[in-house]
Amino acid sequence: MQTLERGALHAAPLLLGATLSVARSGQLVTVRITEVEAYEGERDPGSHAYRGQTARNATMFGPAGHLYCYFTYGMHWCANIVCGTPGTSSAVLLRAGEVTAGVDAAVGRRGALPGPKLASGPARLAQALGLGAGDDGTVLLSGPAPSVTEGVPLPDGVWLSGVRSRRRPGTLTGPRTGVSGAGGSGEFPWRFWHPGEPSVSPYRAAAARRRPGTVQS
DNA sequence: AAACTGATCTTCT
DNA sequence: GAAGATCAGTTTG
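ok -> structure tokens follow
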């Protein structure tokens, strides 16, 4: 995937609107990506790879087009798409998405009701897709997932489809979320989203303000 | 609506 | 031994 090899900062806005499908045990969940963050390896204080390669982040240093999944806060998994060329550590964190297929399976895994929050947030997104232990390093297959047909077993796999070739006009950027220290400052506005997506937190925050005409106490 | 807190454990210093 | 690319529930204003 040419686009991914050019690095996370290049690829991140192009992944908005793309779909990621995960099939396992005959269950298929597809998410349309709505919010991402770029992490650019050893020059990026916010990246897991800032202090070099370790056992945990080894996948980031491999070739583009693989999943980098990591465990954090003692209970959550998050998923990245590895970018760049081998030897560099570049990845795009998937921060939010809209579940477009397999809502029932996603709801079951999340233990939550369907809605904008089903895959909003990196850990929620990973959980909705069923990504976790054992998925780090998984290769991404190109194109849409095979369609589910009666009597034909669905092979396990992860598919990435619909990566843009040009950034969509109006794409918004901002500081990364949850990144402390220098990596979180405005020096790295490497978070990308499209306006008007209910699964993206800035939209929720804006929409949550007092509605026009509402009287405040 | 914002702020705070508990949960829970791997990873690296 | 401390911090962490988080989330959900509760408390406070």
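Helices of chain A lie at 2-5, 8-15, 103-110, 122-129, 201-208.
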